[in-house]
Amino acid sequence: MLDNIKHSIVLLQIAKNTAHPVNGLGLYQLVPGSSSHITAPLMAETVLPEGPVQQGVELGAECRENARRQSRTLGAPASLAVPDMSYSSSEGEEDFYDANDYPPTGSIASTPSGLKAFDSDGDNASNPIQIRQQLPPTGRKISGKPDNIEHIDDDSLYDDESDDNLEIDSNVSVIRHLLSQVKIGMDLTKVVLPTFILERRSLLEMYADYFAHPELFISIADAKTPRERMVQVVKWYLSSYHAGRKSAVAKKPYNPILGEIFKCHWNISDSSESLPSTDDVATVPDGPVGWCTRNQLVFVAEQVSHHPPISAFYAEHYNKRISFNAHVYTKSKFLGLSVCVYNIGQGVVSVLDHDEEYVVTFPNGYGRSILTVPWIELGGSIVISCRKTGYYSNIEFITKPFYGNKKHRVSAEVFGPEDKKPFLTINGEWNGLMEAKSNDKEIEEFVIDVNKLDIVKKQVRPISQQDDNESRKVWKDVTLGLRVNDIEKATAAKQNVEQRQRDEAKERKDNGTEWHTKLFHRGPEESWHYMKPLRQRLMTSNT
User: Fold this and answer.
1) What is the pLDDT of residues 170-196, one digit of tens each?
2) How far is residue 392's CA from residue 399's CA, in Å, rounded to a whole number?
3) Listed residue (200, 287, 183, 214) closest to 252, CA to CA
4) Which residues form a coiled coil (predicted)?
5) Residue 417: partners with Cβ closer than 8 Å, 6 or more residues away
6) Can you tell me the distance from the alpha carbon of 138 to that of 143, in angstroms, rounded to the nearest whole number?
């Protein structure tokens, strides 16, 4: 045991010295084909941001996996931590950075192996429109250097939602760039990342994956008793995370710009052979997505603040009379051998026919093994509670222990209003198999294998019909560059997006005008609410 502890201390010292070179000992690059020769230190020309930095290694969730909750509170969860500054503080010329705008020179800035760029000698090297004309037509897989053709449908860039994995050499470049900028405990809000680590979609679009299994969500409203509805909420929640991670390698979605919006919907399958009723095909013109019908699950998200970064999103199914409203403030921190993303905020499932609200919180995300091949895991304690019925659930996303290979573990306990012991326990992997054991004859035991659940593809309006502030239209040229592995073009396109935002922020500042959200308004305790929720619209229509 003593030897293991000593070994762990040595590993931490190596990580610390890698992040903060002492006496010229820093990050070195191995010469290809050799295991012993090294070249000069690779030091990025990046200036650390000013301000106090927390020192030391934070005690993360991975050090507390076996600790169990000693007391369980009933009702709404405790007050959530919020940033010191106001959520409405979204101005400033330095707010609009998502990844590295000006990568350092040398091998750190070079295009990663496997991410081959176009021929930069031609006249069209910096023209995104001409690049798009070189892509294959809709329906063809884009890989390697595309053929020379005349047209490409922007929407085809999203047809294949699987994400290419970075090669090991690419990850090494990521680590060199990242470690040159950070210290242990440092807030990563202002730290820029290489463009090639970006995932090909906005964070707002990633939040839509909570509803990749729409039938699980809307079936909450079909449950007959409060106990059954609580169990269904837990089943939907535990099944909602695996669809959001399409790549085995940890990547970062685009950081949404202020005022960015994403809209989509899902078609609900009908097992009956009867023709759809008039009520099913009727549209909801005053709904979040006005061209959708009453039998479709619709989703809308807005970036309501950029500094600090806060996203708000809302989903509803009109016929089932169920909705979900949430806001998430993301805060990142460097932990030495990993990166943690704290998801501060909450969501509320509203079952209107029963006047019930289920409040849920969100786990933290961790980028592990950043010195080798980064991978994602979730960690932290989650509470789901319904104040009206008194039912609640404690969920623990268990991070990988220091010793052992068990990853992505999750455990859940579901309680009734007067229960001292859970009437249902669920254990397994949130991205795999989860098994439920029941102590109640009314609740049947079940098994959830998320890999066998059909992921219903979200339907998004063609980019040509989208408004200028909708996610896929905002980032289409960045997505194009990443999709064809042209990192320089993706970086240039990203710079254009961010510079446009800086110019608009400066114009508002010069004119003395403030930014106003379009779809969400700020509520008490720094929460955000959709302006025209289903409950409000139904009440108005009945008066």
Assistant:
1) 545 555 665 666 666 666 555 666 666
2) 23
3) 200
4) none
5) 74, 389, 390, 391
6) 13
